[in-house]
Amino acid sequence: MSALLTCARSRLLELTRLRCDIFSTLYNPLGLRTGAKYLRARLRGPSMVQYYPKQLSFKELSRAMPELKLVNFEEEQRLFDVAERKKRGKGAPKKAKSPEESRRLAKKKRK
Amino acid sequence: MPFGKNARVLRDIKARVEVQDSEVLRRAYIAVARNETLPSQVRYQAQLQLNNFTKYQRPTTVKNRCTETGRGRGILSKWGLCRYQFRLKALKGELPGVVKATW
């Protein structure tokens, strides 16, 4: 160790350079940041995407197996209810074609 | 179905997908911006490019939410469940190795 300490700085640098050559690492005597750690780090995206367990939706299921002819009862019921409501005159109002027709915009204007 | 995915979970899923898609490019820009051996002009340009990514392309936007209910707080990250769902599942014995403490 004492022999190393008495060595000239240039000799030590030469040694480091040689070591870098042998182990094929980057010779960086000033210790500058090279951004290598950001390239070396593992990608986090793939594990991030897998966080939520995959849930098969009805649409995907029926599209994957059209031969089963599955019926989405909840959706059928909803459409039936909407039709019933419309029959009783309780359906959604028609889309406004101008700001005068729109209740919300008309209110805003008055203020 | 245990839960209809709420909007916050859907937003989080969107963020996760976008982070994954843009991750390699973002990493490359970060590496250039942090590289002290490159000219400062190049590094500055890379930093500006990093600012151009959208909110959902940054990994900090991603938040671990409860996989059962979508709750955002009180998540036990090991199971990905909020504290209440964790309790329910643990008492039902659905979480292997988790037992109620008694002494």
Automatic annotation (TrEMBL), chain A:
It holds the Pfam family MRP-S33. This is Small ribosomal subunit protein mS33. Keywords: Mitochondrion, Ribonucleoprotein, Ribosomal protein. GO terms for cellular component: mitochondrion; ribonucleoprotein complex; ribosome. Residues 85-96 have a biased composition (Basic residues). Belongs to the mitochondrion-specific ribosomal protein mS33 family. It is found in: Mitochondrion. It comes from Tulasnella calospora MUT 4182. Residues 84-111 are annotated as: Disordered.
UniProtKB/TrEMBL annotation, chain B:
Keywords: Ribonucleoprotein, Ribosomal protein. Gene3D superfamilies: 1.10.287.1480. It holds the Pfam family Ribosomal_S14. One of its GO terms (molecular function) is structural constituent of ribosome. GO terms for cellular component: mitochondrial small ribosomal subunit. This is Uncharacterized protein. It comes from Tulasnella calospora MUT 4182. The keyword Ribosomal protein applies.
